[in-house]
What we know:
3 domains; 18 helices; 420 residues
Amino acid sequence: MPTILPISAEELAAWLRLALARGLRPAALRALLGAFGLPQNVLAQPFAALAAVAGAQAAYAALAEPRPDFVAQLEALQAWRAAPGNALITLADPAYPARLLDMPDPPPLLYAKGRLELLHARAVAIVGSRNATPQAVEDAARFARTLAASGLAVVSGLALGVDGAAHRGALHEHGGTVAVIGTGADLVYPPAHRPLATQIAAHGALVSEWPLGTPARSANFPQRNRVIAALVEGVVVVEAAQRSGSLITARLANEMGRDVFALPGSIHAPLTHGCHGLIKQGAQLVESPEEVLEALNVGQPSAAARALTSRREPSRPKVSVPFDCMPRDDASDTPQLALESPGFEPPRAHRAQAQKSPAGLGAEARRLLEALGYAPATVEILAQRTDMPEAVLQGTLLQLELAGHLDALPGGWFVRASRG
């Protein structure tokens, strides 16, 4: 990876001023930098010269007075850059990820922590539901472990559910993991992932295009998704409802010429509808990480690496179906975020099914039914997901079977009844 070039105090101030300029879009800033070179040269130009290159709106935005708190933000950035492991990568730096330069609107600044070489490595994204089912969490971690053990960096968005599982699965493998976040690099959202973010900064890479101190805002997350899509060669969607940020990532990846993969699931589960929609539109159906490696022409991990990965797997029987889904709608990465994706509005019947709980069941029975989801599972799998004592688990399974909520299958497997 190219070494990050030193930057003068004047140039740093100019970069930050232009990056913070309201109304100055990344594409317009890129055009101005292409015409005039360094950011301080852009600020030194007259209005007419800037307008001739990028339009009057961009010229007004670039030459506007900086925000009142600009000096404080510049000082905070200087202190942040001085901390070990932190780096500011400008659009003009040779260390800027080449894949992002193919975007029409690459971020002018990247705030990065950790192993910057991962931003240049071959990579694949694993994304999916924030309200992930137990099977989706297991599948995301399993796919991430195998892909990262094969040398691919696993990229995701640090959200709850599938994203977090993907990061954890890849964290200590050869390929590592990259978290593209929707807040400033000095903040962590969701707060529950602070320990995970610390681990990623130490063993992987954390990257943000947002200025320090930027909180979680709904508009940030679709923009974050475009960076995820641009950094990778393919996107694996593990689980998604019909209105999901994961579908935005998949659509953007497809528009950028990246491969899109989707895991199938039960036709009765709302959180598989997004994946099934992608498959209908041409995404590659995958049931194993090896299929992703083959499609991307990546060699599979060595026998020693596979043995190490298998020792990290939970000691339980493998589930032979792709994944299951709980009957509830997916959500976006942040509260109050309504992500529009034309053609992916869930039918009313499915939304109603997603919101209701089986009537007349106790708390233990509801918890067990939720852990079962829509894929077959054994007693051992359910015990691991629920931590129920064996006697309670067996009794609850019998209760659910007698109530018609699940069926017992040959070989010790249980499955949710379609009538339940």
